[in-house]
Structures are given as structure tokens and as C-alpha cells.
């Protein structure tokens, strides 16, 4: 073991003792790049460097640590805070030991121990934390400090409202795209040609792929590389540079005639048939394309190889080679035409997205990245940016660097290269200390543009440009020896076969002390039920037994196999949990996709094993959320019978089916088809049967005799009446809060579901309550508007964690986590078919833009010029597949279990099962009995009613202090509505003057009134205020786009550590002709200049803009609801 530990640490490629490794890794004065295996303590090293830097006297604000997720950033902050608290309370010996672990010599550690004890107090008194951010949060900070002109040049909305999920905007994006296509004859021709050739679904997948890679398409287009990413036929052969492929083929006419004569004298039937067909085609004077297809069919096979029966004819062989060359040229030309059509359409789809974002003041992650690249890489801004950053930043630390994209690296490189060379390089400042840590073996996010080759580029830069050291650690503190032996064996064998590279065998700190340690496999028995399923699947329809489809579900062999695998895993976990004392929270079950995990969840539920899938899912997929929305629907629209019926059957009311049928009969609803047919007498008499008059379920419930209703319906009527009276007076959040408490919702849901599901079901309800406040800033003041907004959006249910439950995770979701027992599910999945709608990107990490971005029609038959690029892409996919295997296996601390669902089709040769099954002995767990899911019953207790207290007269208050909360809320809603209408009216959809704006203004006013729940009186006041402002001679010029040099609404700026938001910021020509800035603040008050707090607020706004635009005049003014412009300062 000691030899393994020694060999696991290298510095600049040379083996080093562990102590020397951590001495350099944790030294904040040295720039280093660390490649560390799973479980080596990468985050520990990063936070240790922060601790050491703080001990050296560095101010917290001079340290920036960057990672990729908010969760990881939060864990870093938490670890640093815990260490500081621990060292403040611990003993002197503990502090000295901790510093020695972090690379200090004993004497140095003893000298620094007192400072370490007081470090927590020093940071608390200073009041400034260490900057620990995600990449995108850091980039956003840079853009908030950037000049407005740069944002305008990049087409980035100055409001910088981050859009994290564009899926909810996709319907509007597609509408804008289709409108532009219909308006442009060339784009419409491209679209129709693609639909005719490839089909609508394939074109949709291509366009979505282009939308996902919009950064790459933009950069390639800006450099003039996009349209030429797929070359013409000349890339296949120089002969096609002077003549098109069919022209080259037409020149072969004489040789074809000679071949027809030769083959006509041939000895076999194939020759004579080919001769006849060629001769007839030549005589018929067919078009070149038709003639080519005929000749191709006679000289080449379906796989485009020469026909063997013609091999005895040298002329036939030579012409077959010529035809094959022409075919490759034609395929290349078709690929080029397809690519260019898709490129043009994709750029239009991206433009539609950009217009929508800019109109709403939104930016996405890609905007932040390209904006940061422009800020850090622009020659004119570089000095200013570096000076600003140098004034605060001395240490840069980046975690999980293998997940960095080429664009993110280019932004970092543009900045860090200024420090390249001795003494800080071109920055003229002290060299920046850079710490980069990651593991290329754990790079599994290529779908998010992560590029493991970026790690190598950063490693070379830090070593050569910053004079740093390159460290590597292959020693884990997580995995048991048996687990690590399997990891080493699998990856070493893949490397031996040429499928993997740069893998070094790992060693471990863990001893063989865990009773559960092992590597086992779960598999179906030969000749078992799954083999029978395969036999059923191969049976013909005639052999299949008749199935009563209304009562019996379809027998799907694939689902049966998944269920069988899930049953084996559930039985194995039951044996470990009930027989060997394993806690459910110590188990991970990992799969590449979520579908197998959903099947496993049902099996675990049947055995009563608590489990959780802590990954985001659609909010509206949660059953209790659907129940609650149905209730809100019924309260907002009492005539909506289906919503009310849905709500009554939910756990909140628990009305029985008999009670619902009783309500249906009372409402006169049709129960049988015959009831819908009117009597002949009624039709002939022209009279309507009054007994069949239909009322709503709501009306029937209120009109029913209470004694005739079941208790659940009586309770429902009482609660619904109370809530319906408040629906117009309460905000959605207030109404939901009342439903939650008065209906005892959480307890009733908990009573109806198994114990293993309670936490997840209650979490979904709490998430909906939170959304009532958070959705669009809580601006929905009516239940109707809130429900509509929820149903129109693809909102995700936030992930939640449950400590003592089996975690069902995808491999991507498990990255960075560990568990005592890990099960790899569905490890022998059939390989996916080659895609027919692919987008290839060739982006060398040293270049600031892609070299090639190419749409591909078929991965199995790429055009000749893209065959090599496709081969490289497939190699990268294979590498990532092995990276995913490495990540999955290294989550296990003690036991690793391999599982698969058997299939009639053999799994792929490189599947996880194929690579690992020989290393793992079989495990056959005992069958588990179904659990009693009612064992943990929840009882609902009714508390006695407290009689109302005697009314007591209210204490009188001074009249000038009596301001009703409702009135304040009304004023706030009116003010928000005025802000919103002015923002809309001055945006892309409302710009214009006079008649043009007057036509759209009523619609904007109506939309705002509905959004903020304004009654007729306040709606009229809103209209007067907006018309007064837009019609004012003083105010109107600030909303006239034709006279403004720049304008933005709700503009965010940072000033002295605070985030501000300006109602409106414009730049226009001053009276002297030069440009000047105006900061405008909207107020309902007719004299805001008399309020000191308003004056101070506007002064701060003006100072913030003045700092961003030094040397330029900045003026500020209030705009009141009376249409007055009141300049201040």
C-alpha cells in the first residue's frame, strides 16, 4: 500500500512524496494545475489554499473561487465556514496538525496556529466574504461593469435578466421563426426543400441541434466559416474543381458505349443484362442524372462496391471506379446544399430568439459567455478591466476544470495571458496566483459544451506562461480495494485496446474493513422468465393469444425485462437493509437514463423501501400539484365541472366515487348514452324536458340538502364556500396558505400515501406555495392569472434530498457524490442507432472560434470530406462513455453491484456489462416479501373549537397614522402597473409615436390591469397617468426611439457593493450637440423632489451611471404620474 501511495503523487511528471505534493498544492503563492482522481479531495485542496491565503494576510475580496454549479459553490462556502469555526474552538495541537496536513512544516504551522484561531473573528469583523461564484455569476458581474456601448454592440440586453431555461419561450420563438420564414422567399424555399427531402421531424431535430449550438454557429458565421464548413465536390477530387460531378460522368459516354458492346459479348447473364440496359439508356438520350443512376445500379452494388460478376472486364472495373468517384462527389454536393439550407434556417431561429430576449431584457448563459469574452479580450478594454480586477483580485481558483467549454477558456485565457511571463507579464502587476483542479476522466458533459482537451490547454498555459507546476494525484480516499481493483482492471484493459488514454492505476487510502465490501453482479437465471419474454417477442401476431384490451394491459417484453431487473435490485437492497443493517440512505442506484429508475421506484415502493430521485422533474407531473391546481381552477371558474370533480376526489376532500355520482345526478349530468337522447314526445311537441336542465357541479353542491350529502361532501361545501368568497380579495399565495391550513392539506396527503412517498409528495406542495411568491416576482394578483401562467410554462420541481432513502440517480446527477453501496442499473443497454440529424463541431481549444460547424445527414454514411471529423466525434463519444463508467464506479465506497436486463439482442461489445461481468461474481439475493405499506398510518386528530373571544373595542389611533394595508397594496399595484406599461410602450412592441402608439396602448393598459388585478377605478387612473406621461411635451422625448442614441428599461447596475435597478436610462443628444445620459425614475407622487429618501435614491442612481460612463454628462429626473419632468441635481 505504501508503494501505491508513493507512486500516486507526481510533480511535473516526477514521483514525489505525499508531503511534498501537498506542500506545493496548498501553497497559495504558487500557480499550480492539479489533475486528481475521484475521491482524491479536489475541493479539500481548493478550500485549503483559500485558508492558507487568508492566513497570509490576503483580504477575502482578493480571492475568487469559481465552480460550475450553485450547489458546489455553496458546499465550498459551507466547508470554509465549518473549518473556521472548528479551528477557532479546537486545541493548539489540532490547529498545528491541520496546517501540517495542508503543506506547512511543523515550525511554520506552530507559528501560524494563533492566527488560524483568530481567523474566523477577523473575517467576521471585516464583513467581506471570500468570492465563491459560478462561472456565469462571475461573467454576469463583469458585464454589469461593462460600458453600455459594448452591450449594445453585442446585442445583449442591458437589463441582464438571466434566462436559465429557454424552454418556456420556445413556442414564441417558433412563432417568430415561422413568420420570418414565410416572409422570406429564399428561406421558405430552403424550408420546403428540407421538409420534402428529410421529413418534418428530422428537420426539427436539426434546427434544435443548431439552436443548442448557437454559440458555435454565431462564431463560425462571424468569421465567414459557417457556410463553407461543408465543402463542395472539389474536396473529394481535384477533377471536380473544373467540372461538376455529372459533367465528369457525361464525359464517360464513349466508354460506356464501348462497355455495352463488350458486355454484350459476355459469358454470363449479368453481363448481357447490363449491356442491354446501358445500350437502351444511351439510345434513349436520358438526362445525365437518370443515366447515372441506371449505370450505377448496373456497375455497383447497393453498398456501392463493384459488381463481382463484371470483375473479368477491366473496362467495367475502371468505369465502376469512375462511377463511385462521381457518386462521392454528388453526395458531397448534396451534403453541402443540406448544410447551407440548415445553417441559414438555424441562424434565423437564433435571430428570433435574440429578438425575443432583447425585447424582454433577457440574457442567457451563452450571452454571458460571449459578453465576458468581449470584455476580457477586447484590446481597448483590456487595460481598464485588468486594472479594475487587479485592484481587488490576487488569487483565482477554479474547480472541476474538466467541465470548462472552449468559449469559457477563451475568456479566461484572454485575461490571464496578460500575466504571462516573468513578473506578471503585460499587466505590469504582481503575478496572479492561479489554482486549477480537475480530472479529465470525469468529463461527461459534452452536451453542455464541456471539452476535456481544455484542461490540457490550461495545464500547458499555467506551466509555460505563468511558471506554475503540474501536479497529479492518483490516490483516492473513497474506494475500497475491491472496488478500486475493478476500476483499474476495466480502464487499463480499455487503454490496452486503444479505446482510452492517459489512465494510470489508482491506489487507495481505504483498508478492507467494511463487512459489505465487494463487487458483485445481478443477472437473470438462464431459461427464466426474461428468456420466455424474448420468445414471446419473437412470436408472430398469429401466434399471440387473444387479449381483452379493455381489461388487460399490453404485454411489452421490454417493460417486463425492466421490471424483472428492478425486482432483483429491490430484493438485493431489501436483503442488505433488513438482513445486514444497511441504511437506505447509504445506497445509490445509478443509470444512464431515468426510465429504468422509474421502474425501480415502483419495485421499491412495493417493498416499502424509502427512495428518492433527487433530480428535477416537471412540476405539473406531481399529482398533488395537479390536485391543487384543479381546486384553484374550480374556485376561479366555478362552472368548470371537471376541475371541481378532480379536486373533490383529491386527498384534500376525499369524496368517494358514490358521492361524486350523487353530485353528478343532482347536476343533471348525462350518465348513460341513452340519457342524452331526448324523448320523442318532447321533440314532436317542441318542448324541453325541464328535468334535464343542466346545472354545474358547483351549483348542485350549494343547492343540495346537506343531510343528504356524505360527510366528505358536507365538509367540501363548507370549505369551498369560504374560499370562493375570498378568491377575489386574496392573492394566490394568501389563498393557497388558507387552503393549506384550513383544509389541513399536508396532514391529509400524508395520511393517504405510503411512508416512502410522503416526503416527496409534501415537497411538491411546498414548492407550489413557494412559486406563488416567486413566479415572475409574485406579480400575479389573481388566481386565474397564476394558474394560467403555471400551465403555460415548463416549470421544474426543485430537487429535494432525503437523508435516509435510497437515491435513484443518473450518472450525471451522481457526479461529486459517494455512497457506501452503489448499483449500476441497465448496464447492458442496446446501443443507440446512428443519428440522422447531427451537428458536428470542430473547435481546436487554442482557437477563439470553431474551425468547422457542419450539419450532417447521416452518421453511418457521412459525406467524404466529413468522414474524418465524424470518426473523431465517435472517438470522443466513446471516451465520454468510458468516463461515465469511471464516474459511476468510483461513487462506491464499499460495495459495487452490476445489474442488467437480459434481452434477446446481445448488448454492445463495449457495454459496461461486457467490460465488467468477468470481474464480478454472481449474487442471487433471497426473494423479498412485500411490505405492509399501512404500518406507519397517519391519524388525523380533530381539535376542539375555541369559542370566539368577546369583542374588545379597538384602541383609537391618531388619524394621520391610520393607513390601511389594503390601500398601500393598491398603490403598490398601481405603481407596478405604471412601470410595466411604460416599459412595454417603450419596448420593441410598443415603440412609435402618435397614432402608432395609440393603437397599441389600450391593449398594454388592459394587459397590465389584468396582471395586477386593478379594478375599474384604478385602471382608469393608470390610463390617465400613462397618457399624461407619453403625451407630455417634457416627458415624451424620452420615449421616442427615433431621437434617442440608446435606451433601456429596468437597467441593472452595481454600485459600491449594491445591485441597483434603474426605471429607465437613455442617452440622447444634448442642446450643445454632444451625447448625454438621463437617469429617469417613475413616481406616482406629484412632488417626489420633496421626499429626502427619493432624492437620495436618485442621487445614488446618478452616481452609479457617472462611474460607469466617466467623463460623460449624466443628468437625472423624476417622471411623475401627472406628466411632469422634475430634474434633480
TrEMBL record:
Pfam families: PDDEXK_1, UvrD-helicase, UvrD_C. InterPro entries: DNA_helicase_UvrD-like_C, DNA_helicase_UvrD/REP, P-loop_NTPase, PDDEXK-like_dom_sf, PDDEXK_AddAB-type, UvrD-like_ATP-bd. ATP binds at residues 36-43. It catalyses: Couples ATP hydrolysis with the unwinding of duplex DNA by translocating in the 3'-5' direction; ATP + H2O = ADP + phosphate + H(+). Residues 15-480 form the UvrD-like helicase ATP-binding domain. Its EC number is 5.6.2.4. It comes from the Bacteria. GO terms for biological process: recombinational repair. The keyword NAD does not apply. SUPFAM superfamilies: P-loop containing nucleoside triphosphate hydrolases (SSF52540). GO terms for molecular function: 3'-5' DNA helicase activity; ATP binding; DNA binding; exonuclease activity. One of its GO terms (cellular component) is DNA helicase complex. This is DNA 3'-5' helicase.
